[in-house]
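ok so for the tutorial part 2 we go from a plain amino acid sequence to predicted structure tokens. step 1 is just haveing the sequence, like this:
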Amino acid sequence: QDATCNPVPCQHSSRWAHRARVEAMANYSGGFHYDPKAGYLCTCLRYRHTVIEHVFGRSTFWIFVVMHLLVKAAYVKGYLTTGKLDQSGAPQINPVLYVSWSEMGIVSAITTFFEVFYTNECFKRYTHLYDTTRDILGVSYEYVMEMRLVLGPDNHSYVRLAARYLMAAVMLFFYEMDDEVKAHEWEQLLRLGLIKPEEKAALMQMLPLERTMILVEWSGAVVCLGHEKAVKNNKCPPNLRKSLLDKLWKFRHLQQVVKDVGGLPVPFQYFHLLKMMIVVNVALWAYNFGCSNSIIYTVIFLFTSAIFMGMMELASDLSDPFGDDEVDFPVGSWLTAWMTMMMTLMETSFPGGNDNWEALLASETGIDRNLIGIDIFTDCGFADSPSRKNNHALRASSSDEEIALKLDDGAWGSSSSDEDSESKTRR
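step 2 — the prediction. this is what the tokens look like for a chain of 427 residues:
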């Protein structure tokens, strides 16, 4: 999936690159694809691709489980009881060791509120980073398309150079997510042709935040030169340069937003308090659920503690979506699909564009209105309204005479109860 970070075998480069592009398009949304209409039990019993995997991999969870089993064993042996029976007939717990469920419920309620708030903040941050990251790639599409349309085919070399600098800025932006561009990543940029050796030498002398900025500036300088030439030779409107530069400024702003949001997580003090509250809460559950002879309490403890700790695991994964966790962004597929689209927008020729569309304009005719119908869209898998479905079934199962009779009886799904028969027949 991460087709931009692995070396390409020379003897199979064309076939490998095509397979990588196809896989990137197929896995464009990334993540684990699931059926939202799956049954309750089928979903609950799934283990792979869930936070339960992470919870069971935590030694803290098993420490709480062992603590619960030790408390239960001590309770059954009578070490925690007074030797008397309470009103329900169960062994009475020593008052010194007794913890009320109602009082413990206060701790659980406060912890639940803190955890839900933290998870919600992490998810809002996650979706904000998703939208902004996708906009970074989207604005580069608009930039290349507008450059090609404004500068024209005579200045296509300016389009290629400006787009190359912008693409290098995008790649470096993602490489610098861990504050360091590794040696193999520089080689990847050279192998893809996004930078040249002398450009690499100049960029390596700069700080990480300066590299993407200077590449955007280089792209803007090239597009300004290309626009000046287009104004002089092709009579291009001078004011179109502002629109091109505005897209570069938007691109830079979006990159800054991702950097700023990524560098501002929930404060550690809040995170520390939340972790402490979860530890105290689960420890109290381990104790209170253990003070019982029923094995059902053990099952309840396992499920509730796994869910409670699982929510925290999920929130922690959502807080940093640029990595290799299950819920992280599929940046490898994104960049492969993005680079494929950029090359398509930059290099694909227009059918009929060699003669300024003259042949196509001369042969262009209007679209036949009679070909347009609701069946065009429903046959492609889109949903239809219930009345339309009934009408479609009526057509399929009835003759023309039967349809006319059912129309008079209101079977055609009329829009109002007082519609007369003449208007029904006409429709």
